[in-house]
Design goal:
Protein name: Ava_C0101 and related proteins
Largest sheet: 6 strands, antiparallel
Order of helices and strands: HEEEEEEHHEEHEEHEEHHH
InterPro entries: DUF5996
Structural class: alpha+beta
Radius of gyration: 19 Å
Shape: globular
Number of helices: 8
Pfam family, one: DUF5996
Number of strands: 12
Organism: Paractinoplanes abujensis
Distance between the termini: 38 Å
Length: 297
């Protein structure tokens, strides 16, 4: 493991911590979902990288707000309300069941008692949070390095985002698949999505993919040190051929290993080339109205 500008973190070295942290983020994300007004494409449930870790951002509650942040500098889950009250849960090697119980207890001390579906989504083995004694690892150094990977990815994604003036998502962290994501939209409706994500009803995916899109992201899998991805929905004819340098026919999306970016002479430009070229393939082949959607440069 390394703390260079683009941190180096082998997935195999922190898989147990990754899987535990994944479940913890699902718990916190579901708390946000319990209180936040619905926003198209599930944008109301996401987390965001911050200067300390990952946060819900401000969530409305009664006449005020609260937020929850994974502080990956001091390794604490911090819960704060707009009336000045706060609670915290240590981030330590404990089970998902213990973390779930402590988090709900801390929320209750602040008058927050969310009703959540306390079972994970988008994973094959969906152990109810209150029963999950399997995932119980926490390597604080690895969790912090992952967060720093997210910061680097977010920084470049935000630069890429500035080049588009059409409908686009924030750069945000989806706790379902544990990925940092950014999506552009053509403005046209898409065919009904078939679903297929594990432990996730088809209507969830249908809402997320209701409109034609090109999506990009980073997740801690797909490469020795994680991977960047890009795909189009629906995938236009010729997309695989035009993106052949990156296209994975098994995943049906484009993949760029994190280690390829981090180890290159210019990581920012290597990643931007991937993002721009895969977007252009989607937009050109699907006949997006590019002059109306792209910022003048």
């Amino acid at each position: 493991m390394s703390t260079s500008t683009w941190p180096r973190l082998r997935v195999a070295d922190w898989t147990d911590t990754r899987d535990t942290l994944h479940m913890w983020t699902q718990i916190v994300g579901k708390v946000r979902m319990a209180y936040a007004p619905p926003v198209n494409h599930w944008w109301h449930v996401t987390l965001y990288p911050t200067a300390r870790g990952l946060s819900t951002s401000a969530v409305p509650y009664e006449e005020g707000t609260f937020d929850i942040e994974f502080d990956l500098v001091e390794h604490r889950l911090r819960i704060r309300t707009s009336d000045g009250r706060a609670a915290a849960v240590p981030l330590a090697p404990v089970s998902v069941a213990a973390f779930h119980a402590e988090t709900m207890k801390a929320l209750a001390t602040l008058g927050l008692e969310p009703s959540i579906h306390a079972v994970p989504n988008e994973v094959e083995s969906a152990i109810p949070f209150a029963e999950d004694e399997t995932h119980c690892s926490y390597d604080g150094e690895a969790a912090q390095l992952f967060w720093r990977q997210l910061l680097q990815a977010q920084r470049v994604f935000e630069r890429f985002r500035s080049e588009f003036v059409g409908k686009a998502s924030p750069v945000h962290f989806f706790w379902g698949a544990m990925d940092l994501a950014y999506t552009r939209f053509s403005g046209r409706q898409a065919p009904t999505h078939p679903g297929g994500a594990p432990n996730c009803p088809p209507w969830v995916m249908q809402e997320g993919y209701s409109h034609e899109l090109a999506s990009f992201g980073f997740w801690p899998g797909g490469g020795d040190e994680g991977a960047f991805y890009a795909y189009a929905y629906p995938e236009p004819a010729g997309y695989a051929e035009r993106t052949a340098a990156y296209y994975d026919p098994d995943l049906r999306e484009c993949v760029l290993p994190y280690e390829t970016v981090a180890g290159s002479a210019d990581p920012d430009e290597t990643l931007l080339t991937f993002l721009r070229s895969t977007y252009l393939a989607a937009a050109d082949l699907a006949d997006w109205d590019r002059p109306q959607l792209e910022a003048l440069r």
